[in-house]
Amino acid sequence: MAENHQANGRVYVWDLPLRLFHWALPLLLGVSWISVELQAMTLHELSGYAMLTLLLFRLAWGVIGSRTARFAYFVRGVPHTLEYARALRSKAAVKHIGHNPLGGWMVLLLLTVLLLQALTGLFAHDVSGTAGPLAGWVSYDAGEWLTGFHAWNFDVLLGLVGIHLAAIVYYARFRADNLVKPMLTGYKDVPHAHEPLHVAPLWQAVLLLAVVAATVYALVRFA
Ligand code: HEM
Ligand code: HEM
Predict the structure, then answer these.
(1) Any ligand 1 atom below 6 A from CB of 202
(2) Ligand 1 center to residue 169 CA distance, Å?
(3) Residue 58 pLDDT > 90, yes or no?
(4) Could you say which architecture CATH assigns to the domain 15-222?
(5) Domain extent listing, the chain
């Protein structure tokens, strides 16, 4: 990208694909929820496939994407995370460029629970005869269990989203760290100049998304 990703103590922390991925999550979660309440199961399945596609994209982007998107960049060991948590209590924690060590673990948890939700949906069925495309791959009992899990896991997801939002309010209110603005604009204000971070080219994201979407389509269509 030709854009200057660092100017006047600002650093480009979240690339466009990651930001679009993020804001699609509340949107699709809302569609999934409303559609199931309205018994609009075709819409429910479509939003679930979109969610699955985005999640698989995000996992791969965590390996080949921009610096801050990479798991290797933000997943820190337990000692480092505990040290960060202690510093947080003493109010000495520094602002992070990208996810902080606690946030990194939360991201992994959210992605795992979201992925489980989308995957179990593929095997779920309801009384009206709507069934995910892979429901035929498992026994009736296993299908029942996976459907129960799909319902239970959604409550877990809502709980995690609640914690996620509370953490964002905490950082804004008590740590003077506005995390939302960077997730909207890509840029974070930092007190000192910071070296620009590696930004993966946009074409790479578009190509990856196309490959992942084709894979999900093939799975659903030919299962
Ligand atoms: C409701 C569904 C939501 C889900 C499932 C969700 C999930 C996630 C995930 C998975 C990430 C990690 C991003 C990544 O590295 O891929 C993230 C980060 C983030 N989310 Fe959400 N999110 C939701 C809603 C929101 C809302 C409504 C806001 C703002 C008001 C928000 C603000 C943020 C911010 C600021 C970050 C970056 C945190 C950081 O700087 O480390 N999220 N979210
Ligand atoms: C991450 C995406 C998804 C979310 C957030 C989600 C959410 C939900 C929720 C909240 C329910 C109602 C559970 C209850 O009975 O209390 C449900 C049911 C269901 N979902 Fe999903 N779902 C997702 C993906 C999928 C996918 C991909 C499929 C299949 C293609 C699917 C198929 C079903 C079916 C068949 C039911 C009805 C099961 C029943 O009646 O209990 N879901 N989903």
Answers:
(1) no
(2) 12
(3) yes
(4) Up-down Bundle (1.20)
(5) 15-222
